């Protein structure tokens, strides 16, 4: 069963009416209702608040990394383990083909259903997950394969075991190594990009966000609890933090916004996957047209550009 948010209730009713009309074979009603649906979608989704975009980024039906991999990667072969401790299911790594390009895809996977969510640790990777991601990235570098990274996590796992196995070092190591890796890299925030857990696979030649994704140093819930000691002020925190794709593009912190379908990736998964595939292949050709020196210089310039200081 599809899940509908509060502001999507009118869409739900129209879609139910369309199904009812189809059962009755009343195609005149189907046509009219479809027109009404398109108008309602445009009215609602072109006027979303930042908090509503956050809700869409976390939508239960929104495609996760594995959904996109299944839709756009051909002959996919999964890579397991970090060769140090264990295989972290919150990070997934696949070799395969996108179009005619042999690629490495690294993603953060949240999981659906209680059993799978526990297996994936709700998309919060342990240190061994980030070390697995780095191992896969180094393998891609060895065989000159471009890398696509799919960011979707509330943050790195903050548990005792993760800290004992040096969570912060694993993230810092990824930041360093991915900044220096000698192969084209493209990172896309497909849902929720939280803190260092997102940055750990977010350093790339191209860093983009889906239309309804978010990216922040802390969750709005955490921000409202710290600033106001009131978790109910999540909406105010969301508005103040500037975490949407449009905000980050305006601030120059991301390169591009991928225009997923207006109704959202959770209602048009195949179209959203096609948008990611098209963006990846397009940007990959641009990066391949640059020399290694030009690409590395552009990456360095981008990484040191954010922020300002006075002496």
Describe this structure in words.
There is one protein chain. With 311 residues, the protein is α/β, with parallel strands linked by helices. The chain has 2 domains: 8-47; 52-303, 2-enoyl-CoA Hydratase, Chain A, domain 1 (Alpha-Beta Complex), CATH 3.90.226.10. Helices cover 49% and strands 16% of the residues. It contains 14 helices and 8 strands. Strands 1, 2, 3, 4, 5, 6, 7 and 8 form an 8-stranded mixed β-sheet that branches. A hairpin with a 2-residue loop joins strand 2 and strand 3. Helix 4 packs across helix 13 and helix 10 packs across helix 11. The longest helix is centred in the last third of the chain and has 20 residues, at 269-288. The chain is globular and about 60 Å long. The protein starts with 8 loop residues before the first helix and ends in a 7-residue tail after the last helix. 41% of the residues are buried.
Short key terms for the protein model shown above:
single chain; 311 residues; alpha/beta; 2-enoyl-CoA Hydratase, Chain A, domain 1; 2 domains; eight-stranded mixed β-sheet; 14 helices; 8 strands; 49% helix
């Amino acid at each position: 069963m599809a899940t509908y948010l509060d502001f999507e209730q009118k869409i739900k009713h129209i879609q139910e009416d369309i199904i009812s009309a189809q059962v009755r074979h009343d195609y005149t009603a189907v046509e009219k209702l479809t027109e009404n649906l398109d108008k309602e979608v445009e009215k609602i989704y072109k006027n979303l608040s930042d908090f509503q975009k956050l809700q869409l980024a976390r939508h239960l039906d929104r495609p996760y990394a594995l959904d996109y991999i299944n839709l756009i990667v051909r002959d996919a072969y999964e890579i397991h383990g970090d060769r140090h401790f264990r295989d972290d299911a919150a990070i997934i790594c696949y070799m395969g083909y996108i179009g005619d390009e042999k690629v490495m895809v690294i993603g953060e996977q949240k999981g659906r259903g209680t059993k799978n969510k526990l297996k994936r640790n709700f998309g919060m990777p342990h240190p061994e997950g980030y070390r697995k991601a780095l191992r896969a990235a180094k393998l891609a570098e060895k065989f000159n394969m471009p890398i696509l990274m799919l960011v979707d996590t509330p943050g790195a796992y903050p548990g005792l075991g993760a800290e004992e196995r040096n969570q912060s070092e694993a993230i810092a190591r990824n930041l360093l190594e991915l900044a220096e890796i000698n192969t084209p890299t493209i990172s896309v925030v497909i849902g929720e990009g939280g803190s260092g857990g997102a940055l750990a696979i977010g350093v790339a030649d191209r860093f983009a966000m889906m239309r309804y994704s978010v990216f922040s140093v802390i969750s709005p819930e955490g921000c409202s609890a710290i600033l106001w000691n009131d978790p109910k002020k999540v909406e105010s925190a969301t508005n103040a933090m500037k975490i949407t794709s449009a905000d980050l593009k305006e601030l120059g912190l991301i390169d591009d916004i991928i225009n997923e379908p207006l109704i959202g990736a959770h209602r048009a998964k195949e179209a959203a996957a096609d948008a990611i595939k098209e963006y990846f292949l397009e940007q990959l050709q641009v990066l391949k047209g640059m020399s290694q020196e030009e690409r590395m210089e552009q990456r360095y310039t981008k990484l040191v550009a954010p922020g300002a200081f006075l002496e």
